[in-house]
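Duplicate of earlier report; Mas-related G-protein coupled receptor member H input re-posted below.
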Amino acid sequence: LLTAISIERCVSILCSSIRRPQCLSAVVCALLWTLSITVIAAVTSLCLLHENEHCQMALISMYILNILIFTPSMVISSTILFIKVLCGSQQHQPKRLYIVIFLTVLFFLIFGAPLSIWNFLQQFGYILAPSQVVFLLACVNSSINPFIYFLVGSCRRHCSLVSLQVALRRVFAE
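Output:
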């Protein structure tokens, strides 16, 4: 979903003068969900049937897809988006939303991506860090988004303390 959101926001800003189909977002999300479900179903069925060689190839394919397709496209589109915001075009843009997307992607790279890399390397017998460290980072990644929304939403009033609900409303109102 981060990949779809990042690409969608980037395309909508970069191609704002071009009229694009309204259903494009739904189609992109549907394709990504279909791809994800297909890959997960293949991995699950092969691994549950104890097809070790096929299971390992399916897992490696899943990790390669995540590391070489989803993560780079998310990072590139979010970086382009962030640079566009920093350049400060003349139009009024919801800059807090872009900051949320950028922070979400940044923290995903710091806390979430190590799990995929660790799993990929583990398929080849490399273990660079204890599993507890990698799983702790993944847990932090899973729980950090509400804090990002709160901080970005509350910084509007020079980091005053406001309720989480109000901060979330401000961020998503844009």
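Helices lie at 2-14, 24-48, 52-87, 95-122, 131-143, 145-154, 164-173.

Merging into the original ticket.
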